[in-house]
Predict the 3D structure of the following.
Amino acid sequence: MAGFRLIGWGLLCALGWFVVLLVTGWIVATIDGETPATSEAGMLVEVIGQGVGGIVGWLVLPKLVLRRLGQSALISWRRPQRADFAWAAGGLLAIYAVLYVYTAIVSAAGLESLEPQSTIDESRLYVHTSVMVGLGILVIVCAPIYEEAFARGLLLGGLRPHWGMIPAFLVSSSVFSALHADLGSLIPFTLAGVILGVVYLRSGSLTAASMTHVSFNVIGFSATLVQQLG
């Protein structure tokens, strides 16, 4: 029962995220008169709205939920220790290994449509410097914090005592994959969620998992930026 109650709280957190996105869409429509955004101001508001929505829905509200349940320590970070760097590096290598094997399999099977795709609309968001900077902050700083707080802290950490290890991993990693809204990323990002969950539980805090996530996003964002500007 407690596990389902936690899922209900998680859905309310998702509602908070959705409300912020609705407000952002209204502001963008006011600026540009249409969606998606076309002007620099509209694009910047769109990026900022995504960040605020993530912080509200995936970080602040889950933290409040766990505080109400007396489990606020599940969403916490500490000063990086030597072991955190080791776990972060191992997690990063494991995620890239999963992506490499998965991409090789779908390519060999002629299923290129199932290869992971970037969820960033590169044709619009890399046009203006301010939008690129905002997007970089969102991808590199914000997302690894609030996605780890929600998927690993609230779902994995919160569900594990009630549903057991495997169901908690399945739910948290599946939700993490779904957050990226890409069919090709469904399987590899679910497995990446499992890896990040192992890093989180074995290291004892969100620090190492967030470090892995930050490193992965830095590499991906930098590669995309070089490709777009090169």
About this structure: The mean pLDDT is 91. The two ends are 54 Å apart (CA to CA). The chain has eight helices and no strands. Residues 2-229 form one domain.
